[in-house]
Design the sequence.
């Protein structure tokens, strides 16, 4: 039986490269070879033991560009073709699925989180979860999923022309939110405690950017004439920042929580009612968001390739992921290359 190199997170803080038997596709599945794997904040949280929905050991990796190795007749995918992967495997039967929201399926199983993911030489995935991305390169294809998170959050928050939008947190997810908020017509600001990351957001995404210090916060308030933002997105993964975000929302505004933490989030009920705020969660993405991102990459309005700053391979990732988890200096998006 064929075996392949596989990067396994045995427990928090423990990564190991091992040989595993190649998977046997089940009914409805296709055998694929991951070619690029984007390393996500979720992967760092899994490595650090901070992810709220995980059991170890786990093969991480859900931001994928894959090459189809074996596609059964009638699967609708082409052997040898390059595809993005929608990593959210939904049941298709629950209340969320019936209402067209498989991204928050009651029993959703996310590749690399609830089931083993793409940091391996071969992977079996449902054919229905492969997303054609014609005209995109391998790097671009691997970035579709994380950008779809941002596109979905923007759609949840209904950000558009005439809105002033604030994205708190200038990590990759925050950058994706800021990008698609701008493409939707909103006047966008990004706030980050790291002034350099805020500046990267300005240069990379073309939005206004502010550091979360006294001068930056004063300038941020001036950005809206002291009125606050019509829609605020939190992409920090920090409970205190998520709670502070309520303060930035204007009267009648919307607050979208994109990041997830293990903590309880609290807010002032009198302030919430005084402003008549709308609080929204944003989880994963849908086929509509994947299509939006692929179109934006293809027409050049989403400069996906510029997000990739670091590269490694499966063997190198054993040491690189721990290093990047603690030192993100200059890091926007790292990818694992699998030949």
Sequence:
């Amino acid at each position: 039986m064929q075996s392949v190199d596989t990067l396994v997170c045995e427990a928090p803080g423990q990564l190991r490269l091992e040989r595993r038997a190649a998977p046997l596709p089940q009914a409805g599945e296709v055998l694929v070879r991951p070619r690029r794997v984007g390393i996500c904040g979720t992967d760092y949280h899994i490595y650090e033991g901070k992810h709220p929905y995980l059991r170890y050991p786990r093969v991480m990796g859900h931001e994928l560009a894959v090459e189809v190795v074996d596609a059964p007749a009638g699967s609708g995918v082409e052997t040898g073709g390059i595809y993005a992967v929608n990593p959210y495997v939904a049941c298709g039967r629950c209340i969320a699925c019936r209402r067209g929201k498989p991204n928050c399926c009651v029993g959703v199983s996310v590749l690399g989180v609830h089931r083993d993911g793409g940091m391996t030489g071969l992977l079996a995935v449902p054919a229905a979860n492969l997303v054609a991305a014609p005209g995109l390169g391998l790097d671009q294809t691997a970035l579709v999923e994380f950008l779809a998170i941002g596109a979905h959050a923007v759609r949840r928050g209904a950000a558009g022309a005439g809105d002033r939008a604030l994205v708190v947190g200038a990590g990759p997810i925050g950058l994706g939110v800021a990008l698609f908020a701008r493409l939707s017509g909103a006047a966008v600001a990004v706030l980050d405690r790291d002034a350099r990351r805020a500046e990267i957001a300005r240069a990379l995404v073309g939005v206004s950017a502010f550091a979360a210090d006294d001068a930056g916060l004063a300038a941020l308030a001036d950005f809206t004439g002291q009125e606050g933002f019509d829609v605020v997105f939190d992409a920090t993964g920090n409970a205190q920042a998520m709670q502070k975000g309520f303060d930035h929302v204007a009267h009648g505004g919307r607050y979208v929580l994109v990041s997830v933490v293990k903590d309880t989030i609290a807010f002032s009920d009198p302030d919430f009612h005084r402003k008549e705020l709308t609080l929204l969660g944003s989880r994963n993405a849908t086929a509509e968001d994947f299509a939006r991102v692929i179109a934006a990459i293809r027409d050049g309005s989403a400069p996906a390739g510029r997000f990739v700053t670091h590269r490694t391979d499966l063997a190198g990732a054993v040491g690189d992921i721990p290093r990047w988890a603690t030192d993100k200096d200059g890091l926007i998006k790292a990818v694992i290359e699998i030949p």
Remarks:
- The chain has a mean pLDDT of 96.
- The first helix runs from residue 41 to 48.
